[in-house]
Amino acid sequence: QKEVEQNSGPLSVPEGAIASLNCTYSDRGSQSFFWYRQYSGKSPELIMSIYSNGDKEDGRFTAQLNKASQYVSLLIRDSQPSDSATYLCAVHGSSNTGKLIFGQGTTLQVKP
Amino acid sequence: ETGVTQSPTHLIKTRGQQVTLRCSSQSGHNTVSWYQQALGQGPQFIFQYYREEENGRGNFPPRFSGLQFPNYSSELNVNALELDDSALYLCASSSQGLAVQETQYFGPGTRLLVL
To answer: Which residues of B touch chain A, with CB atoms under 8 Å apart?
Structure first.
């Protein structure tokens, strides 16, 4: 079992729709969760961080965390073609080493 | 832009050679982490430096080494390069060192090709 799992996609949605990206993790002691966006050939860019169960909203983005189910998701409302990228879920584990554990990423395609 | 810089942007080496990659952290940040990202994969943690001391290491052989300078910039050294070392090397800086809620910001990366 991978430590952080994501569906590699591609996930294809029409412009204006809601894109839903999902991630599960195996370390029940994990305390910090992050979503990064990575355009092709570029480095990861932080979108959201979430630490507590529930929803956290920032503009068109909403992160959702359920520690009991070991599940974190990212919703993108009113998806735009510029949102087309790979979305990486990252988990800061229960150790204090500063290690972020990444999933392999989900490729999102927003079609005009 | 995160304020994290890396050099060089691209590098081509041959098997067996050694390489040094450099990273300057964002102003105010005292922690640097290094990651290796192979094509189509998520970044893999190599190690982290907090106030010039190594703070954790991923599953990488000893030929991957690093250091952090008093100004918090950092170097990643890879000896005896192998073809599988071809990847995007990412540096991330943060300001919370050992804090669980540490947020890491990535530089543009160095793309290494080993022939």
So the answer is: 2, 31, 33, 35, 40-45, 48, 50, 55-58, 88, 90, 92, 94, 97-98, 100-109
CA-nearest residue to B54 within chain A is: A97
Using CA coordinates, name the residue in chain B closest to A49.
Answer: B103
Half-sphere exposure of B79 (CA within 13 A, CB side): 6
The residues, any chain, with a CB within 8 Å of residue A40's CB and separated by 6 or more, are: A85, A86
State whether A43 and B107 contact (CB < 8 Å): yes
Per-residue pLDDT of chain A (112 residues; tens, 9 = 90+): 779 999 988 999 999 999 999 999 999 989 899 999 999 999 999 999 999 999 999 999 999 999 999 999 999 999 999 999 999 999 997 776 778 999 999 999 999 9
